[in-house]
Specification:
five-stranded mixed β-sheet; transferase; aromatic amino acid biosynthesis; binds phosphoenolpyruvate; UDP-n-acetylglucosamine1-carboxyvinyl-transferase, Chain; 24 strands; single chain; binds shikimate-3-phosphate; alpha/beta; four-stranded mixed β-sheet; 27% strand
Length: 429
């Protein structure tokens, strides 16, 4: 447990930073680099706990992976040469590792067992287990395979056509990865766009993948190693963008951030709320758009966030809720029931903490209504071991009337180990 007492800052934030590499893209670079034949070099890799779990998983499956901070080199003889793990694989706190690896393990012709930390152990895995069983994998686990720990007998998969019952890039990616091992064609149909980094990166690794309307098709094939530059994580940038949007007089830039359209809901929300935001230096690297974002503080107003927008900002909702406390009028968030299934029930975690800090938040089954504008008081709050809740609370302290004490900030190492260092950079004129 690492408790922290954050005194109010109440001064403008200025300057520029580069946030760490994107978590979703870092996971996928390790996965595809391990399945591809040859040497894959990853630069600007997110050296956070979740992505290290994905590296450890492939090391256990016999892949040679060298990691020095944000540089990762993978030497693989291809997906056919992976070997049975002698020990259970630990997925830690990482939903992405667990769900994407289940897709890979379903395709591998041997036995694997896997488990997670207490939070991951109560997150649903049946959303991936079901399509894997339809493809022919044998999976057992707690509650008939719906939860970790799990045991997988993979191999001999056949392609399926699968319509996603949940708007989840993790499920889509698991089915596509299993499709690399399956006989015939594997098709995934999604009715709402979710992050498409798997599709982009499969193409970068030479895969023949067909994307037409809302269907993605893939077949059993070999991948070739590639070099991957990981853009800055817009989900991490969101905490700094929100800080600058609410601390009076602030103006900051975040450089080389991923601007993939399936992830930029936070930019659209900031603009709709009235933030002064500009994007420059746009370019495409490793199949992903990147650029620099500048935000200058402005008065904000409440908005409605729902429907197809939700998957484009699902991980940013904790900090968007904080933004909404500083906006004039009501902000309504709906269609976001998935938040109840993240590292913690984020709807309850957001509402209980912000209420303790003087905000006016009503929860609903699939979201919340935030009545702004309210001032943020100090007080004791709890992170529920959730990195995004911990960082949202730290941002709240910037504008609080009194000190905010967060019970435990150790979870921040999952996605943004340098979070406080970067915030300090922006605090220094
Ligand atoms: O595919 C990914 O990398 C992710 C997808 C999202 O989860 P779901 O697929 O469960 O929506 C997101 O919340 C998570 O942080 C990362
Ligand atoms: C939900 C998240 O990640 P994961 O599902 O990989 O645990 C997150 O990073 O906010």
């Amino acid at each position: 447990m690492t408790e922290i007492k954050l005194k109010p800052f109440q001064k403008p934030l200025t300057g520029e930073v580069e946030v760490p590499g994107d978590k979703s893209i870092s996971h996928r670079a390790v996965i595809l680099g391990s399945l591809a034949k040859g040497t894959t070099n990853i630069t600007n890799f997110l050296n956070g706990e979740d992505c290290r779990r994905t590296i450890d998983a492939f090391r256990k499956l016999g892949v040679t992976i060298e990691q020095e901070g944000t540089s990762v080199t993978i030497h693989s003889d291809g997906k056919e040469k992976l070997t049975e793990a002698k020990q259970p694989i630990y997925f830690g706190n990482s939903g992405t590792t667990a769900r994407l690896m289940l897709g890979v393990l379903a395709g591998l012709p041997f036995f694997t067992t896997a488990y997670g930390d207490p939070s991951l152990t109560i997150r649903p895995m049946d959303r991936v287990v079901q399509p894997m069983r339809l493809m022919g994998a044998s999976i057992t686990g707690r509650e008939k395979g719906s939860y970790l720990p799990t045991a997988i007998n993979g191999g001999n998969l056949k392609g399926i056509s699968y319509t996603l019952p949940v708007k989840s890039a993790q499920v889509k990616s698991a089915v596509l990865l299993a499709g690399l091992f399956a006989e015939d064609v594997t098709e995934v149909i999604e009715h709402a766009a979710t992050r498409n980094h798997s599709e982009n990166m499969l193409e970068a690794f030479g895969a023949d993948i067909v994307i037409k309307d809302n269907a993605i098709r893939i077949t059993n094939q070999s991948l070739s190693a590639a070099n991957v530059y990981v853009p800055g994580d817009i989900s991490s940038a969101a905490f700094l963008l929100a800080s600058a949007a609410i601390v009076p007089g602030s103006s900051i830039s975040i450089n080389n951030v991923g601007l993939n359209k399936t992830r930029t809901g936070i930019i659209d929300v900031l603009l709709e709320m009235g933030a002064n935001l500009n994007i420059s230096n746009k370019k495409s690297i490793s199949g992903e758009l990147i650029g620099d974002i500048t935000v200058t503080q402005e008065d904000l107003k409440g908005i409605v966030i729902e429907g197809a927008m939700i998957p484009r900002l699902i991980d940013e909702i904790p900090v968007i809720a904080l933004l909404a406390t500083q906006a004039e009028g009501d902000t309504v968030i709906r269609d976001a029931k998935e938040l109840r299934l993240k590292e913690t029930d984020r709807i309850e975690a957001i509402a209980s903490n912000l209420t303790k800090l003087g905000a006016n938040v009503e929860t609903t089954e699939d979201g919340m209504v935030i009545h702004g504008k309210t001032s943020i008081t100090g007080g004791k709050v709890v992170s529920y071991d959730d990195h995004r809740i911990a960082m949202m609370l730290a941002v709240a302290s910037l504008i609080a009337d009194d000190a905010i004490i967060i019970d435990d900030i150790s979870s921040i190492a999952i996605s943004y180990p340098d979070f406080f260092k970067h915030l300090d950079t922006l605090k220094t004129p």
